[in-house]
């Protein structure tokens, strides 16, 4: 069972079989431990799962070489490796505990080298529940906790029961908001559900995908027409590129659903790896709205963000908030993420000089907005309270021409707010204004810690 939105998860949802309510009520449900109190271990199925994975890897790699000694030897060695891996997994499982102590998450791990981590939940940046296909079948889930503090700050709990993972996620978010860990899970309201047809069409209706597909067809026809096997040297990279650029996102974002909740933005998506991502309020640092050339006729865009806590590969993996969405809903999400803003109404002033005439810059009391790109339009939106550095950049040639670029830095991510081709005097005025607005916004805006228990300023 994948993650379902609230409207589709209950017995009154469309397509629910008649009589399913009574059958479900009569079905015995094994209660799972209350993970909000005391110390707990991962689910016991973690032990045989790890042992089976090690045995399969051995059978697929060294086991193939050992086939020359006979099938019984391979079977004996595989079972031996499996039992040894199971014993190690059992001891590791027994020495792995986690629990909530006050507003801290305490995790003890390690068999030979004991490691204890006590994490203040005020530093919590995001909570994800991930369920690969095999884990879905077993009724398990992996809980990923993102913290402020760099690439080594991620906490992974593998694997918990599905209901235990959901309950622990809600408890962690409640603690981060300054509430009791036993606070019921916050309600949510539907925001956007991505139709499969729109996702399929938008992913296919891109210049790189269309060009790669046409070239692949031409090479296929040429190979059959001239009986030339050399075309495989071009077909294989193109096929791999299509799988990465088209099939990968298609499987990743199928069943995509976004909802808004007091504890943040909730995203559900995925087929072979179902994922529920929760970004608490105040963790989104900047937003990018990407509109490829061919998407303009469809009226859809992609929304990306710099999310505090995600770094490196995890940042690139979790930066997309809405993969395909109508343009008006993209700006509506920006206004929800940054309360008090109206990014769609910020007046954009185009560059006055140079080759960057599609570049534009707009500033109001809440955000700075930049636009760039000719074939792929990119709009970067950064709240003044989230700016870290404001720079005026001008090389020797640009200085001779009297132009400069205004650059706004935020925490790591895809957003790179930069407005080029500005008059030098105008760029200086913009930089001074952004510094002043940033100082005022930060002095009047509280941080994201314990947001639910703060009094309004």
Question: Which SSEs are present, and which pair or pack?
Answer:
Elements: H1 6-9, H2 20-26, E1 39-40, H3 46-60, H4 62-65, H5 71-94, E2 97-101, E3 104-109, E4 115-120, E5 124-132, H6 133-138, E6 140-147, E7 155-161, H7 162-176, E8 189-193, H8 196-204, H9 207-226, H10 232-253, E9 257-261, E10 264-269, E11 273-279, E12 284-291, E13 300-307, H11 312-318, E14 320-326, H12 327-337, E15 349-350, E16 360-363, E17 367-372, E18 377-383, E19 389-393, H13 396-401, E20 403-409, E21 417-423, H14 424-444
Helix pairs in contact: 3-5, 8-10, 9-10
Task: Write out key terms for the chains shown.
alpha+beta
Instruction: List unreliable stretches of 5+ residues.
Output: 8-27
Cα(first) to Cα(last) distance is 43 Å
Strand order of the largest sheet: 7-6-5-11-10-9-8
- Judging from the principal axes of the Cα atoms, what is the shape? globular
What number is the mean pLDDT? 82
Structural class: alpha+beta
Q: What is the number of beta strands? A: 21
Task: Give a concise summary.
With 457 residues, the chain is α+β, with helices and mostly antiparallel strands.
Explain the overall architecture.
The chain has 14 helices and 21 strands. The protein has helices at residues 6-9, 20-26, 46-60, 62-65, 71-94, 133-138, 162-176, 196-204, 207-226, 232-253, 312-318, 327-337, 396-401, 424-444, and strands at residues 39-40, 97-101, 104-109, 115-120, 124-132, 140-147, 155-161, 189-193, 257-261, 264-269, 273-279, 284-291, 300-307, 320-326, 349-350, 360-363, 367-372, 377-383, 389-393, 403-409, 417-423. Strands 7-6-5-11-10-9-8 form a 7-stranded antiparallel sheet. Helices cover 37% and strands 28% of the residues. It has 457 residues and is of the alpha+beta class. Among the domains are: 43-95; 195-253; 284-453, no CATH class. Residues 1-35, 433-457 are annotated as: Disordered. InterPro entries: UCP026631, YdbS-like_PH. Residues 93-171, 261-330, 362-431 form the YdbS-like PH domain. The chain crosses the membrane at residues 47-66, 72-91, 196-218, 224-243. Keywords: Membrane, Transmembrane, Transmembrane helix.
């Amino acid at each position: 069972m994948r993650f379902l939105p609230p409207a589709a998860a209950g017995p009154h949802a469309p397509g629910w079989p008649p009589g399913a309510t009574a059958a479900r009520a009569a079905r015995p449900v094994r209660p799972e431990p209350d993970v909000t109190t005391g110390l707990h271990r991962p689910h016991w199925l973690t032990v045989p799962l790890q042992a089976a994975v090690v045995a399969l890897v051995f059978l697929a790699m060294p086991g193939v070489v050992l086939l020359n000694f006979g099938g019984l030897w391979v079977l004996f060695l595989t079972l031996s490796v499996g039992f040894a891996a199971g014993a190690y997994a059992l001891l590791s499982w027994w020495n792995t505990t986690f629990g909530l102590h006050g507003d801290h998450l305490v995790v003890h791990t390690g068999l030979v080298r004991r490691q204890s981590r006590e994490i203040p939940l005020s530093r919590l940046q995001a909570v994800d529940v991930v369920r690969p296909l095999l884990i879905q079948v077993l009724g398990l889930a992996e809980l990923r906790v993102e913290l402020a503090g760099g690439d080594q700050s991620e906490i992974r709990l593998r694997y918990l029961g599905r209901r235990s993972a959901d309950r622990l996620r809600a408890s962690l978010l409640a603690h981060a908001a300054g509430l009791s860990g036993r606070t019921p899970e916050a309600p949510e309201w539907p925001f956007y559900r991505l139709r499969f047809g729109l996702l399929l069409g938008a992913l296919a209706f891109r210049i790189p995908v269309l060009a790669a597909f046409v070239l692949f067809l031409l090479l296929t026809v040429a190979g059959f027409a001239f009986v030339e096997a050399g075309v495989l040297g071009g077909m294989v990279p193109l096929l791999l590129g299509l799988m990465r650029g088209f099939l990968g996102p298609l499987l990743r974002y199928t069943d995509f659903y976004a909802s808004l909740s007091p504890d943040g933005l909730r995203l559900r998506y995925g087929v072979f790896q179902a994922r529920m991502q929760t970004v608490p309020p105040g963790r989104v640092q900047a937003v990018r709205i990407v509109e490829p050339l061919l998407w303009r006729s469809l009226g859809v865009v992609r929304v990306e963000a710099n999310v505090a806590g995600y770094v490196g590969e995890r940042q690139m993996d979790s930066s997309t908030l809405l993969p395909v969405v109508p343009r008006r809903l993209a700006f509506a999400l920006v206004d929800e993420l940054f309360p008090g803003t109206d990014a769609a109404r910020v007046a954009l002033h185009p560059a006055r000089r140079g080759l960057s005439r599609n570049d534009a810059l707009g500033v109001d009391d809440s955000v700075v907005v930049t636009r760039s790109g000719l074939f792929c339009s990119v709009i970067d939106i950064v709240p003044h309270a989230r700016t870290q550095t404001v720079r005026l950049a001008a090389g020797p040639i640009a200085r001779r021409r009297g132009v400069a670029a205004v650059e706004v830095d935020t925490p790591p991510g895809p957003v790179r707010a930069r407005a080029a081709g500005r008059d030098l005097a105008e760029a200086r005025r913009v930089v001074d204004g952004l510094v002043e607005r940033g100082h005022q916004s930060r002095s009047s805006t509280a941080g994201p810690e314990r947001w639910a228990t703060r009094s309004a300023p």
